[in-house]
């Protein structure tokens, strides 16, 4: 018990140190930036669940359409490996979409272990509680931490075949070059024959895309601004959150949908002994939500060391879950 507690404290210190160093580095750069992976504290988790329920946020319903109505196609695609496997979900959240797949796999007596990975310990606790209640037969090993670190941990825990899920269009949180490096690293960490199921939000009417990230209720704005509140709480900073405003853009040519916070006045923020200066109208680059063409997806798979087994689209052809093999 004491050893476990010491390990947990060490892990928390490591996370806090990484958070501090990345925040300070990002706010000292030009232009200023913050990492969107830190949006997800307890409040951020709740706000993001509200975002997913918004009528403007089409992504949830598109991929949910696939997981609710085309589960047999998904199972056929990932069961081609014809052996027991580990189902690893990167950024699992509350597993709302993947739960449909999990239930069907369990119902078919498939030999697999579910390994959800998330940086948020809070949401992993919610996930495990939900799974224990709704799918009690499910074998589950939650892994809290960064994607690659926990993928290494999953490989250490089990040598079985791997099926990795990366849903929700989360690959769009990187620009095209970052996505290429990310997928290449996934490929290097997997073995030949392992699978990677990855969700892509496809390019579509730009008004539809912009509305999904610039909702009239202001939930997305609150989600972005909450990161400043988290920095205040965890790093003893003194952001005046009301002096920043959310701003959203979408470029239909490049497919880059970007979120910013705008400083509304000249101001300074203190973090530890560091002073960060903001000019009026200066921006903090918060997040990119990249949209892809079908050709982008094909090139990304090829450049990353995968080949595409099959692709499953929603009924509107707005979203695709592409299934790749190493």
Short structural summary:
The chain is an alpha/beta fold and 326 residues long.
Strand content: 15-25%
Count of extended strands: 13
- Strands of the biggest beta sheet: in what spatial order? 4-3-2-5-6-13-12
Which spans have pLDDT < 50 for at least 5 consecutive residues?
2-10
How does the major sheet shape up? Answer: 7 strands, mixed
> Please, what is the CATH homologous superfamily of one domain?
Vaccinia Virus protein VP39
Helix content: 40-55%
Radius of gyration: 20 Å
In quaternary terms, these chains amount to: single chain
Report what the structure shows.
The protein is α/β, with parallel strands linked by helices and 326 residues long. The protein has a domain at 70-202 and 292-325: Rossmann fold (3-Layer(aba) Sandwich), CATH 3.40.50. The chain contains 11 helices and 13 strands. It has helices at residues 2-27, 42-52, 58-69, 71-78, 98-107, 121-134, 147-157, 176-189, 206-213, 219-235, 294-303, and strands spanning 32-33, 85-90, 112-118, 143-144, 161-166, 195-201, 244-251, 256-263, 267-271, 274-278, 283-290, 307-313, 319-325. The strands form 3 sheets. The protein has a 7-stranded mixed beta sheet with strand order 4-3-2-5-6-13-12, sandwiched between helices. Helix 8 (176-189) links the parallel strand 5 and strand 6. Residues 2-10 have low confidence and may be disordered.
Please specify the SSE layout and strand pairing.
Layout: H1 2-27, E1 32-33, H2 42-52, H3 58-69, H4 71-78, E2 85-90, H5 98-107, E3 112-118, H6 121-134, E4 143-144, H7 147-157, E5 161-166, H8 176-189, E6 195-201, H9 206-213, H10 219-235, E7 244-251, E8 256-263, E9 267-271, E10 274-278, E11 283-290, H11 294-303, E12 307-313, E13 319-325
Parallel strand pairs: 1-11, 2-3, 2-5, 3-4, 5-6
Antiparallel strand pairs: 6-13, 7-8, 8-11, 9-10, 12-13
């Amino acid at each position: 018990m004491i050893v476990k507690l010491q390990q947990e404290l060490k892990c928390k210190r490591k996370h806090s140190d990484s958070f501090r160093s990345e925040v300070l580095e990002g706010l000292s750069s030009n232009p200023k930036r913050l990492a969107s992976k830190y949006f997800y504290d307890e409040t951020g988790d709740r706000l993001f669940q509200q975002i997913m329920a918004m009528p403007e946020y089409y992504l949830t319903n598109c991929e949910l359409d696939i997981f609710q109505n085309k589960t047999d196609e998904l199972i056929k695609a990932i069961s081609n490996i014809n052996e027991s496997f580990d189902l690893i979900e990167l950024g699992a959240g509350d597993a709302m979409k993947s739960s449909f797949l999990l239930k069907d796999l369990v119902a078919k007596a498939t030999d697999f272990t579910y390994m959800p990975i998330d940086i948020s310990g809070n949401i992993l606790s919610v996930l495990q509680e939900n799974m224990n209640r709704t799918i009690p037969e499910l074998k589950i090993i939650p892994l809290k931490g960064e994607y690659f670190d926990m993928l290494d941990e999953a490989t250490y825990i089990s040598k079985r075949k791997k099926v990795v899920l990366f849903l929700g269009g989360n690959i769009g949180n990187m620009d095209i070059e970052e996505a290429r490096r990310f997928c290449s690293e996934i490929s290097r960490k997997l073995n030949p024959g392992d699978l990677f199921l990855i969700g892509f939000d496809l390019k579509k009417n730009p008004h539809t895309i912009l509305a999904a990230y610039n909702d009239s209720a202001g939930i997305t704005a609150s989600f972005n601004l909450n990161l400043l509140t988290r920095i205040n709480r965890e790093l003893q900073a003194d952001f005046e959150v009301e002096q920043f405003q959310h701003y959203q853009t979408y470029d239909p040519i490049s497919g880059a949908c970007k979120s910013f916070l705008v400083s509304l006045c000249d101001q300074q923020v203190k973090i530890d002994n560091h002073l960060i200066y903001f000019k009026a109208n200066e921006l903090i680059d918060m997040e990119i939500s990249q949209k892809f063409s079908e050709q982008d997806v094909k090139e990304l798979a090829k450049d990353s060391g995968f080949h595409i087994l099959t692709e499953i689209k929603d009924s509107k052809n707005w979203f695709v879950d592409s299934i790749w093999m190493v």
